[in-house]
Backbone:
């Protein structure tokens, strides 16, 4: 995939004089977070406000990288731009109805310094990462947010279940990579660079649920049970729920020893 423009976005980009690779690449904008410098290349993200032709406003995250590659089975020697894999994964989830940021633009070019790559996604408005929500609950009154957790946990379970139904593993399913539409709305998956198809749904499930289980230590046993019931689409804890619970406990103990 050398170039992609989301439906309706070409007109918006052109309205902001950003209708070409060069204009996006050369855009002077503050970094949303410090650029990542490594191995002769760099990668950075900017948050950009765009005017729409109808007089509205959209916000995108503009990610640019130069000479950042990774080796893959398709490209074992030369490697491929790291954003290429993320763009491929975003497009897959967008087309599969799995909640993730909408891809706005992707393009790549060869330069004297190596690959120049642009990936832009639409901002998830009104969302907070799950880890920040947990921090807020702990700072205030955990019990007070019981109803909110009852709404959020099944939403997280549902989006993860849909992902695994396609035999896809996120491979970095930390709480900070799950965004929640406030208050207690839909759950979105972000940071999809490491997402891969696994040999089976179960392999994908165990990898991701183990990570998420260990990265949400603040959640109670009741919260965890609520997640597993929603994930396995059960009304009560049956043999399959108990078996998965036991397996996650075993995996957690192994990682902690």
Residues:
């Amino acid at each position: 995939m050398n170039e992609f423009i989301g439906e309706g976005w070409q007109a918006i980009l052109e309205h902001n004089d950003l209708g070409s690779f060069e204009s996006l690449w050369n855009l002077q904008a503050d970094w949303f977070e410090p650029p990542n410098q490594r191995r002769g290349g760099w990668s950075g993200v900017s948050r950009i406000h765009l005017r729409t032709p109808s007089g509205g406003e959209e916000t995108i995250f503009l990610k640019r990288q130069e000479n950042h590659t990774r080796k893959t089975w398709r490209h074992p020697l030369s490697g491929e731009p790291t954003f290429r894999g993320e763009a491929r994964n975003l497009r897959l989830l967008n087309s599969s109805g799995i909640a993730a940021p909408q891809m706005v633009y992707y393009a790549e070019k060869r330069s004297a310094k190596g690959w120049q790559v642009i990936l832009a996604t639409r901002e998830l408005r009104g969302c907070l990462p799950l880890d920040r929500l947990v921090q807020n609950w702990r700072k205030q009154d955990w019990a007070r947010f019981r109803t909110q957790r009852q709404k959020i946990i099944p939403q997280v379970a549902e989006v993860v279940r849909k992902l695994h139904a396609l035999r896809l593993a996120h491979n970095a399913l930390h709480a900070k990579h799950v965004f929640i539409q406030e208050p207690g709305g839909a759950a979105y998956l972000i940071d999809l660079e490491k997402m891969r198809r696994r040999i089976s749904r179960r392999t994908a499930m165990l990898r991701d649920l183990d990570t998420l289980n260990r990265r949400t230590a603040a959640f109670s046993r009741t919260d965890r049970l609520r997640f597993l019931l929603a994930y396995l689409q059960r009304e009560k804890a049956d043999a399959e729920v108990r078996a998965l619970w036991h397996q996650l406990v075993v995996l957690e103990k192994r990682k902690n020893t």
User: Anything to note?
Assistant: The helical segments are 9-15, 21-25, 82-96, 130-139, 146-165, 201-214, 221-232, 239-256. The chain has a mean pLDDT of 91.
